[in-house]
Specification:
Radius of gyration: 23 Å
Strand content: under 5%
Structural class: mainly alpha
Oligomer: single chain
Shape: globular
Strand order of the largest sheet: 1-2
Order of helices and strands: HEHHEHHHHH
């Protein structure tokens, strides 16, 4: 791939490594009002926005999450650190999953581990997941660079420089999109399988027929 696109990829990966994210130790141990929650989320996630007009989290979003049974209701209009953890999961899930699938993922989580004193609690769960995801940053970068090299070997017979550059760029987007598409399908299949196995059992209907004597 030409140097311009290689430099672009390097810049994107550098930006990704510098993105703000919510570390377990960043979440306050005190309960927050709605305005404090939106401010906290913005301070830690604003770098993930694609454009300046994008919203990280608004009051309307939080209220809709509660109405859609994604987020437990606040206590006396205050949100706990457990609420922050759930909102963080929602923030990342909503980019790839439907509301229905997010419900299927978060409802068991909140039912079993949201309340204070749960074992394990959400604080422990979030730390474990954060640790696993952090370890994937380097392999992810290597995989993206490998796809860049693969795309650079495509369309080398195209003589026009601009056409070749576009087709190689298009190839890279296709490779990355295919990766996302396949993983999204796998995620949806996992959710469907888990939901089917753990669905409430319906009472069997008795098939009574009158017998003629």
């Amino acid at each position: 791939m030409n140097n311009d696109i290689k430099e672009l990829m390097s810049g994107i990966l550098k930006d990704m490594s510098a993105l703000n994210y919510i570390k377990p130790g960043d979440v306050p141990n005190i309960n927050l009002y709605m305005d404090q929650v939106t401010t906290f989320m913005y301070e830690h996630l604003h770098d993930t926005k694609r454009t300046t007009d994008d919203k990280v989290l608004t009051k309307t979003m939080i209220n809709n999450y509660a109405k859609n049974n994604l987020l437990p209701s606040p206590v006396k209009k205050k949100y706990s650190k457990e609420h922050i953890y759930i909102l963080t999961f929602i923030y990342y899930f909503k980019n790839i999953l439907s509301i229905s699938d997010i419900q299927k993922m978060l409802n068991p989580l909140t039912e079993k581990f949201f309340d204070e004193g749960s074992k394990p609690d959400l604080d422990y769960i979030y730390k474990e997941i954060f640790s696993m995801e952090s370890s994937l940053a380097r392999p992810l970068s290597k995989d993206i660079f490998a796809k860049s090299e693969q795309a650079s070997n495509a369309f080398t017979d195209v003589k026009n420089d601009d056409d070749r550059e576009f087709l190689q760029f298009f190839s890279l987007v296709c490779l990355l999109s295919f990766d996302v598409y396949m993983k999204k399908n796998m995620i949806e299949s996992l959710i469907d399988d888990y939901s089917a196995k753990h669905a409430p059992k319906q009472p069997e209907k008795s098939d009574k027929t009158d017998k003629k004597k």
